Structure formats: C-alpha cells, structure tokens
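Appendix B, example 12.
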Amino acid sequence: MIINGKNEKIPPFPHHKYFISVVSKFFTSTDLFSLVTMDKFKLVEQIKVSNKNDCFVPRCLLLDPTSSCNLHCNGCWAAGYDHKDNISYDKLDDILSQAEDLKIGYCFLSGGEPLVRKADLLKLCAKHQGISFSAFTNGLLIDEKFADDIAKIGNFTVAISIEGFEEATDFRRGKGTYKKAIKAMDILKERNIGFGFSTCYHAKNYKEIASDEFLDYMREKGCWMGWLFTYIPVGNDADMSLVCTPEQRAYVHEKIRAYNKKHNITIIDFWNCGHLAAGCVAASTGFVHINSRGDVEPCAFCHYSDSNIHDKSLKEALSSPFFKAFRNAQPFSDNPMRSCPLIDVPDKLVEVVEKSGAHSTEMSSPENVRDFAKKTKPIADKWQPVADEIYATYPSNCKRCFKTNKKILSYRKSKT
C-alpha cells in the first residue's frame, strides 16, 4: 500500500495496518467485483452469517466504553453525556465475544474519550485477536509507553481528533489541545504506527480543513488516512451557527475528492460518500453503535434506540423493530448525496422512530425526534437542489456502484 509516497508492507488481519488498507479499499471501490472480493470476500461471509442467524450482521461495531472525557468540546455530540457512565470490562468482553461469534471483524471505539480506559482496551485487544480495533481519540493520553504497547499488540490504532490548525482546534477543544494532539502524532510516527486524523468540519473551519496546506501537514505528521464528519446539531442546546451551508458542504466535497485523486490518499468525507454504501450505513447495514449506557443505536449521531445490550443479546438488538424499520427505509433517497436521515431526509427519521416506538437516548436532555427534525428540515431543504446538481455530474462508474450497493442491500433485507 502506498502511504505518502512510500510503499508500506501490510501485515495480515487483524493488524491495524490491514484495517487501514481495507478502509481505503472500501471507500475507493467502484464496482461489484471490488466490493465482493475485498477483505477476503468479507461481504459474502457477512451475508452467509446474517442468513444463518436471521439478523443483519454489520461489518463494524462502534462501541463507547465510557462517557468520561478529559475535554468538553463545543458542539460534540457526546458533550452532554453524564461522564460517569462506563460499560464494565466484563460486559465489554462479552459484547466483543458476541461480535466475534457473528464474524464482525472490526471495532471502532469512541466515547467520551475511549483512552480513559486504555488499560482495559489493551487487555481486550490482546484477548480478542479476531477483531481489529481503532479508536477515535483526542490524543492527549497517548504517551511513549502507550505507543510502544499498541505497536507491540498490533491490532489497535487511532484516529486523532483535530479541527484544523492551532486556533481552530483550540476554539472547540480548549487551549493547548492542538499542540498535544500534534505531539501524539509525532510519537506514533516515530514507531511507524499506521494512524489517521479525524475532524469535524463546520461553518467556521470548513475551508481550513479542506485546504491543501492543512491536509499536506497531516500527511507530513504521518497520517495514513483521514475521517471528515460534518457538524450535526444533536441535542436541545446544539449551536446552529456551526451548521454548514449547502455551499460550504459542497466546497468540502469538491476539494476532498480532488485532493484524494491527486495524492492517492483516503480522506473520507463521510456524509458525502453515500454512493459507496447504498446511502446510509447505519442500523447494521454497515455498522452499529453501542453507547456507554448500553443503548444500541443506528449510529453515533442518531440518539434513538429500542434496545439495550444489558437486556438483549447483540443478535437480538440487530433485529429489533427499530432497526428493522430503519433498514426497511434505506436507502432514504435515490440520491446518495442525500443519504443521512438526520440532516438530509429528517422526515424519514421521524417516520421510523415513531413507527417502531424507539425512544431518545440523549443523555443530558432527551430530544423528541420531531423537535430534532424541525431543526434540520430547513438544512435538508436547502441541500437537496445542491445535492441533485452534484450527483448529476458524478461519473457513471460511481452511479453504477450506488445501484449495485442498493441491489445488495435489497437482497440482504429479503433474506433477513
């Protein structure tokens, strides 16, 4: 795999470098052959396991071991969490064992700040060698010893959260955070650990994080890939001034596509990659989220659920009425640039939540789904014509990829 102009040897699964290579292949696939054959025919295995267990098995599990965090970032979807919630080590072990039984090979860790539990995470990585782990982290708890530990254990890596350069990062994350995140990158690069960066782009930083200057610097610091998440106004007190306009979101989309092509790197503009995954990948079509209270949610941003992992098995939760209703509504739009029920088609979110009887899992102040949709409907209405214009210019192979993914999704739904 070529990383920043250097040919890197990729160890076999479950090594973290293998994980990064699979993510890269997934987000650059454009045809049925690449979808089916990638990761040693993992899609075929997923379908077989799903049919056998009569549930929709995702490729990835997104798990919050804790709600605790050493920061309080402005606009973070987890900022309102009660910082006392933790899933016990034994329960985390049980969840991961269930995931392995279902042949789920990848686990993303978030929170809160997952590295608050780094001792437990290292033990879990060592025990569950059938899973490759990756943590979204602010990087402040990464030191030389921890980096040595993850280099040795092999199946664990990180994506370090950063919001641009120093001023933009410290604006949301607190003074001094940027320098500590950069130091963590230096520590990881010194040990040749494959890692990435993760950023939330919003109305105040979108140009900076999509700039060649910033992206070049991330590559210079050793990042193998990047995750870009647009700001979602989750929570009753969400700052609506940070929501990107349609023009700002389109700007990031165009810049990132051009940068990826020019530099042969995978920087994932998550909300604008729907054509690669039949639109929305939530509710176990691609991944499933378990928060630090055990609520099983469609994704980390969609705070509604009808199942808790303390009361149900993972298999039962994947087949819950809410998840079934959610999947039956997918894809939420025939335009994959409008794939998200949170900010692109909120009427659909209202429909599936109310139809299934799901409840709000917002920890600080439960948010009625109609109140949430009322905030995001104007965003969706403004985005629709821009999204339609963008998708009209997409190359034919990308459109074929979306159609192929829709057919695969339809087949899987018919079998479970």
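The two ends are 36 Å apart (CA to CA). The longest helix spans residues 369-392.
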